[in-house]
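Fill in residues.
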C-alpha cells in the first residue's frame, strides 16, 4: 500500500503542481450555467479560434525568410563564413520550425548558447564580427569586419538582390567558474533582428543575470513577429522562490500561456544535496518544496489550482508512512480526503472566471486476483484514490466526453496537420 500511495501523493504534488494556479481563489469559482454538452461546444469553439490563429502563424513571411536563410547554398571553402553561419543557423532553427510546432520556441534558450563550445559568442564577435553579403555566383559571403555586430545580407525567396538582413548585436556573455558549470558559456544579452527591406519582420531579445554560484537569477526572452504575434518568457530564481512564465499571443489575444511559481528552500547547498540524493516520497519533496503554484491557458480555457505540499506531506506521513498493508476502502477514502483538502485543480473560462469542471479524488473499486503458477486464484477488491474532473451535474470528464463530438475541431486539426506535411 505504501508504494501505491507514494506514487499517488507524489503525482498530486508534481502533476497538480505543474498545472495549478497562482491564485487559490480560482478553486472556489462558481460553475458556469452550461450543460455538459454546451461546455463541449464552447471548448470546441475555443479550439477553433486557436486553429485560426495558427493559420495566420504559418503564413508569416518572417518564418519563411528564416527558412530561406537556413537553406542558402554555402561554399565550404571559406571557413570563417561556415563557422559563423552555422552558429547563426543553430540559433534560428527553433524559429524556422515554429509554424509546425509552437513548442519549438521553448528551445530558444538552449539554441542561443551551446554549452562547452570551444568558441563563445564573444569569441565569434571578436574573430568574425562584421557584415556578410551573399554572393550567389560563388555561394558565399563577402566580408567586411566590424567589432560590434554580426550581420548577414541575403536574398529572400526568388529575389535577385539581397533584400533580407539578419543582425546580431548587444552581444555579451560570461564563462562560468563554478565547478558544476565550469567552462559553460552563459549568455547575458543578445539582440537579433530580421529585416525584409526596411521592414523588421522578426525581433529576438535576450537578457540574463547570474548569482555568485553562476546560477541564473533572472532570464527573459522576447520574440516579436508580424501580424501582432509575440512570445515572452521570463525566469527568476533566489533561495526561496523559483518562478517561470511564458505567453504566446496575437495582439492581446492569448494563444498559449502559463506560469510556474514555487516556494521552498532552494539554497545552493540544498540544490547540491538534492542532486546527490534520491527524492522519492512526499516527505523527501517537502524537504525543499513548500508550495507549488502554476497555471496554463490555451485560448480562453485555463487550468489552475493550488497544492499545499508541506501539509500534504505531513498528513501522508501521519496516516500512511508505516502502513504496508493493502489499501482498505476506509484508508483509500482517507487518502482522497487528504488529497482533496490539500490540493485543487479547476478548468474554467478565463474571461468570465466560471468553472467548467473541478478535479476530485474518489475511491475506485476494482476486482483483482492473486495468481498461483500463472493461474488466477483468490479474488480480492482493490481500492485506489483516483482523480477525475467533475462537471456541475456530478458527471465525470472521462474518455466518452472527448470520444464524441468535436467534429469541426478534428477536421480543422487534420487539415492543418496535412498542410504542414506538404
Amino acid at each position: 500500500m505504501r508504494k501505491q500511495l507514494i506514487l499517488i501523493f507524489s503525482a498530486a504534488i508534481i502533476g497538480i503542481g505543474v498545472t495549478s494556479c497562482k491564485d487559490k481563489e480560482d478553486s472556489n469559482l462558481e460553475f458556469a450555467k452550461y450543460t455538459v454538452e454546451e461546455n463541449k461546444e464552447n471548448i470546441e469553439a475555443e479550439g477553433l479560434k486557436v486553429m485560426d490563429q495558427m493559420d495566420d502563424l504559418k503564413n508569416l513571411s518572417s518564418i519563411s525568410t528564416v527558412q530561406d536563410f537556413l537553406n542558402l547554398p554555402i561554399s565550404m571553402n571559406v571557413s570563417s563564413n561556415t563557422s559563423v553561419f552555422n552558429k547563426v543557423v543553430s540559433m534560428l532553427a527553433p524559429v524556422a520550425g515554429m509554424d509546425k510546432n509552437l513548442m519549438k520556441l521553448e528551445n530558444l534558450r538552449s539554441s542561443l548558447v551551446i554549452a562547452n563550445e570551444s568558441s563563445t559568442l564573444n569569441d565569434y564577435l571578436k574573430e568574425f564580427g562584421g557584415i556578410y553579403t551573399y554572393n550567389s555566383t560563388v555561394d558565399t559571403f563577402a566580408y567586411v569586419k566590424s567589432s560590434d555586430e554580426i550581420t548577414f545580407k541575403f536574398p529572400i525567396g526568388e529575389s535577385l538582390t539581397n533584400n533580407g538582413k539578419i543582425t546580431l548585436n548587444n552581444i555579451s556573455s560570461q564563462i562560468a567558474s563554478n565547478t558544476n558549470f565550469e567552462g559553460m558559456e552563459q549568455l547575458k544579452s543578445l539582440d537579433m533582428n530580421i529585416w525584409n527591406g526596411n521592414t523588421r519582420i522578426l525581433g529576438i531579445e535576450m537578457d540574463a543575470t547570474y548569482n555568485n554560484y553562476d546560477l541564473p537569477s533572472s532570464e527573459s526572452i522576447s520574440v516579436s513577429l508580424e501580424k501582432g504575434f509575440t512570445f515572452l518568457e521570463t525566469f527568476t530564481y533566489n533561495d526561496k522562490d523559483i518562478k517561470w512564465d511564458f505567453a504566446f499571443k496575437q495582439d492581446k489575444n492569448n494563444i498559449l500561456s502559463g506560469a510556474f511559481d514555487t516556494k521552498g528552500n532552494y539554497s545552493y547547498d540544498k540544490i547540491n544535496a538534492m542532486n546527490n540524493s534520491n527524492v522519492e516520497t512526499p516527505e523527501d519533496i517537502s524537504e525543499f518544496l513548500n508550495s507549488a503554484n502554476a497555471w496554463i491557458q490555451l485560448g480562453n480555457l485555463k487550468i489552475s489550482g493550488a497544492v499545499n505540499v508541506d501539509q500534504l506531506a505531513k498528513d501522508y506521513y501521519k496516516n500512511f508512512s508505516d502502513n504496508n498493508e493493502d489499501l482498505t476502502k476506509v484508508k483509500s477514502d482517507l487518502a482522497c480526503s487528504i488529497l482533496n483538502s490539500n490540493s485543487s485543480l479547476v478548468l474554467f473560462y478565463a474571461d468570465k472566471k466560471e468553472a467548467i469542471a473541478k478535479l476530485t479524488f474518489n475511491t475506485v473499486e476494482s476486482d483483482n486476483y492473486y495468481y498461483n503458477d500463472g493461474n488466477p486464484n483468490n479474488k480480492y477488491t482493490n481500492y485506489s484514490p483516483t482523480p477525475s474532473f467533475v462537471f456541475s451535474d456530478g458527471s465525470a470528464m472521462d474518455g466518452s466526453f472527448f470520444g464524441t463530438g468535436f467534429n469541426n475541431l478534428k477536421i480543422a486539426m487534420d487539415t492543418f496537420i496535412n498542410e504542414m506535411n506538404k
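Confidence is low (pLDDT under 50) at residues 1-24.
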